[in-house]
Write a structure and sequence with these properties.
By secondary structure, the chain is of the alpha+beta class. It starts with 8 loop residues before the first strand and ends in a 15-residue tail after the last strand. It is 30% helix and 23% strand. It is built from nine helices and 15 strands. The chain has a six-stranded mixed β-sheet with strand order 13-12-11-14-10-15. A five-stranded mixed β-sheet has the order 3-9-8-7-6, sandwiched between helices. A hairpin with a 2-residue loop joins strand 6 and strand 7. It has two domains: 248 residues, L-amino peptidase D-ALA esterase/amidase (4-Layer Sandwich); 117 residues, ArgJ beta chain, C-terminal domain (Ubiquitin-like (UB roll)). This is Arginine biosynthesis bifunctional protein ArgJ.
């Protein structure tokens, strides 16, 4: 499963020399057609990196043919020179593939405040272009890793068409988007407006709800490419569901690989007055360091959940709230529920449920506990 699973896409990874480690650090994904629909979602950070600015402009008309991505340098907060360098990366990739520069999106990841060395990037792009192959997806996914410990790839298939994806991200994971570079590909025939709508929906309920450390990056980019090579025009709802499936898979992989995490936690709020209120409640819990300390110590401390909920303006009555850990209701009606000794948190995956009994809306936020030193009665923590 990779970005080259769908028909009509090639990819490659190369070593340009941007990483001191000498590991692969540059990737290219090429849509060979016949169609070139594209959609993108970018960081909400007010300091967008140069490649974000350039890619936003190139994707504005809903058409792209390729994406060039590098690790080993974010090209963020680098002024006019950074913009020129991002444009140069697009132009070099276009020249190597026989495309205009504005048919190429640019993505970068690494340290902020460092210029990209184009003397290394140019030959790296040429090397990647020569290596493009229909089985090159895994190499591309490896080349965009920074502190990631594993490459992240996903796939969803339907009758006659498929969606592939790759992602990077292991820190600064917070909504809007999260710290990530993501490329999604499909051989379904999807016009740009429908692709954009499906991508917005998918991001809203997946990447926007991945919240590890509350830190938003300058480089977050999710790009979707559709080439119609399958000859199939899918039902919009079916396509959106499949795209969300791939994004959800990648989001969970990002959370699982977040730096120092020992648990992956899904916080699901049900019976909220609205979806927005459900998200607000779940995010309050996800961002509670004391809650994360408890999970790290394998302690289903439901008081920490209630404390976090109590800081919000979400509609609920304290005497109506239930909290469960791994389906054991340890708090019922804002008071003592089942014996918390019944809860086993020794596994890596943890499910926390919150029932507000204030409506009918549901939302889930993904988080983790990072690395915390835990003292059961007097929590002390450090990242």
């Amino acid at each position: 499963m990779s970005v080259t699973d769908p028909v009509g896409f090639t990819a490659a990874g190369a070593t340009a020399g941007l990483k001191p480690s000498g590991r692969p650090d540059l990737a290219v994904v090429h849509n060979t057609g016949p169609e070139d629909s594209a959609a993108a979602v970018f960081t909400g950070n007010r300091f967008p990196a140069a490649p974000v600015t350039v890619s936003r402009a190139h994707a504005a008309d809903g058409h792209l043919r390729a994406v060039v991505l590098n690790s080993g340098g974010a090209n963020a907060c680098t002024g006019e020179q950074g913009l020129d360098d991002a444009r140069a990366m697009a132009a070099a990739t276009g020249a190597a593939l026989g495309l205009p520069a504005d048919a190429v999106a640019v993505c970068s990841t690494g340290l902020i405040g460092q210029l990209i060395d184009l003397r290394l990037v140019g030959p790296g792009i040429a090397s990647a272009a020569r290596a493009l192959a229909a089985d090159g997806g895994p190499a591309a996914a490896e080349a965009i890793m920074t502190t990631d410990t594993v490459p992240k790839q996903a796939r969803a298939g339907r009758d006659g068409w498929s969606i592939g994806g790759m992602a990077k991200g292991a820190g600064m994971l917070a909504p809007g988007l999260a710290t990530m570079l993501v490329v999604l590909t499909t051989d379904a025939s999807v016009p740009p407006d429908a692709l954009a709508a499906a991508l917005q929906t998918a991001c809203r309920v997946t990447f926007d709800r991945a919240d590890s450390d509350g830190c938003m990056s300058t480089n977050d980019t999710v790009i979707a490419l559709a080439n119609g090579a399958s000859g199939i025009v899918p039902d919009p709802g079916v396509f959106a569901t499949a795209l969300t499936e791939v994004c959800a898979d990648l989001a969970r992989q990002l959370i699982a690989d977040a730096e120092g995490a020992s648990h992956e936690i899904a916080i699901t709020v049900v019976n909220a007055a609205s979806e927005d209120e459900a998200v607000t409640a779940a995010r309050a819990v996800a961002r509670s360091n004391l809650f994360k300390c408890a999970v790290f110590g394998n302690d289903p401390n439901w008081g920490r959940v209630l404390s976090a909920l109590g800081t919000t303006d979400v509609a609920f009555s304290p005497e109506d709230v239930d909290v469960s850990f791994n389906k054991i209701t340890v708090c019922r009606g804002g008071a003592i529920g089942e014996d918390r000794a019944l809860v086993d948190l020794s596994g890596r995956s943890v499910e926390v449920g919150v029932d507000l009994r204030a409506g009918s809306s549901t939302a889930t936020v993904l988080t983790n506990d990072l690395t915390y030193d835990y003292v059961k009665e007097n929590a002390e923590y450090s990242t």
